[in-house]
Write a structure and sequence with these properties.
mainly alpha; 68% helix; single chain
Length: 280
């Protein structure tokens, strides 16, 4: 919601300089309003074409435009790669927030399509690393969380919505229909959060830790250990024991990422909100 609204705003500011400029909140509302059309599709399979266009084609195009634009723009004058002058506490929370952003970017591998997940992550890594490295080369410490904003002014939620819809229809006896689709998509809540806290990097860090780290980094490991109930193994079963150690390490690292990134993102949202005029 936030990214789409900001990009719409930037596009219109560049394409139509003589028109009255709308504030960012309105652009987020306009972008969010488009999403109300998607829940009216009859079923989850009918969203496949939208998902392909949005998640695959648009994501690749977006990242390619970002790094190619940075190369074409070149380095800004007096580019600096030094750390921004701030307190040690700020450094720590920035690192925590960055962990959440990484979790957000590479979440979702609990989906049971191993080869597809590997292929997706390979492409994902190329896109992200090119944007990150070239964007930092061009703008240094002044790079924006959304690098396209420096050039002169992901649909992942759809499976979650489908899961909620299935649960409410089968277990809570909700009749399927337009009202249910609109309710399940939680568009109003998502849109409200986007308009209220349009802090791109902070939101990625917070939701990456709070929402994606558990389901991607340690809950699957806990589930495996609970289901298999592994005991101590003999020397001939050392490979199995190694798997247990790896899963235990994943749990430890995953819990740390969840706590650190959630705290870091939440703290940065509060810090940015202290200098932000809401609903302007």
């Amino acid at each position: 919601m936030v990214t789409g609204g900001k990009c719409l705003q930037k596009f219109m500011e560049m394409a139509s300089t003589n028109c009255t400029q709308l504030k960012q909140s309105y652009w987020i509302l306009i972008f969010g309003g488009i999403h109300f059309l998607l829940p009216q599709l009859p079923n989850f399979n009918s969203v496949a074409g939208v998902s392909l266009a949005a998640a695959a084609v648009m994501s690749l195009s977006y990242s390619t435009i970002a790094w190619v634009g940075c190369v074409a723009r070149g380095q800004i004058d007096n580019v600096s790669y030094a750390y921004k002058k701030t307190s040690s506490a700020d450094y720590m929370f920035y690192v925590f927030n960055a962990l959440g952003q990484i979790s957000f970017a590479f979440a979702g591998h609990a989906v049971p399509m191993w080869k597809g997940a590997l292929g997706a992550y390979f492409i994902n890594a190329i896109c992200y690393f090119l944007v990150a490295l070239i964007g930092y080369w061009a703008f240094g410490q002044d790079v924006d969380g959304n690098v396209l904003m420096n050039l002169k002014k992901p649909v992942y939620a759809i499976p979650v919505f489908d899961l909620l819809e299935t649960m409410m229809v089968k277990k809570m006896n909700f009749p399927p229909g337009i009202a249910l689709y609109s309710l399940l998509d939680l568009l109003i809540i998502t849109l409200f959060i986007g308009v209220t806290f349009p802090f791109f990097g902070d939101l990625l860090g917070f939701f990456g830790g709070f929402g994606f780290a558990p389901t991607s980094y340690f809950l699957p490991s806990i589930m495996w250990l609970v289901i298999k109930k592994p005991k101590r193994f003999s020397a001939s079963q050392m490979d199995h024991q190694l798997v247990v150690y790896v899963l235990q390490s994943c749990i430890f690292v995953g819990v740390f990422i969840m706590l650190a990134s959630t705290i870091g993102g939440f703290r940065n949202i509060i810090a940015d909100a202290s200098t932000y005029s809401f609903y302007t």
